[in-house]
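Lay summary. Proteins are chains of building blocks that fold into shapes, and those shapes determine what they do. In this project we predict the shape from the chain. Here is one chain we studied, written as its sequence of building blocks.
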Amino acid sequence: MLDNLRDRVAIVTGASRGIGRGVARRLGAVGAVVIAAARDDHADGVAEEIRASGGQALAVSVDVTDPKRIDDMVQLARKEFGRVDVLVNNAAIVRDHLAVRLTPADWDSVIATNLTGAFTCARAVLRQMLKQRSGRIISLGSVVGQMGNVGQANYAASKAGLVGFSKALAREVASRGITVNIVEPGLIETDMTAGLSESAHDAMLSQIPLGRLGTTEDVASAVCFLASDEASYITGHVLAVNGGMYM
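And here is the predicted shape, written in a compact code that computers can read:
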């Protein structure tokens, strides 16, 4: 089904851990050329893993709040592989506090990474995608952006903003064969959820009709589908991967 992703060039931000790592690995497994981006040198491990499995991957050090670093990453992709076919906007941070205690710095840093970073990455790849008249832009939202969560007003706003941004962009670039979609995970098994107490874990499960936390593979499958030719008639869509937590 996903053979058409072979040799497609895919940039994944926030690729060093969790969902981003899972997405990068899956794209590499189906034959895509993966540019794994993360701050500092944290994406080296996943790039090495993809190469060890017979795939192609480059690790790049990118802070998505730095437009120059983003432009340099896209130029490297074009220099090495001649094109950019897929962008996965996954890089995100949290600065959780009740709204009354959120500082302007807490607000600004989350918006700058989670929302403005996605815009800056999309703008950087669009020049190439418009020229080649094809491309896939997929941003990782969150169930929190749909239903809210105590202590995460900044994070929820950033993820809800991704939906509006992506839908507007989808309309702008559809005539050039570029699709823009959002994958919104629910509660996913990552190193962040692994440290939860048993009571907190059980409380989370009680909110999920399917009775389990999602996996990074669940999310990666959705991303790969939207990146593939099978999803060529889907754009401006929010694909929920949340086990029924929010319907």
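What the prediction tells us: The two ends are 27 Å apart (CA to CA).
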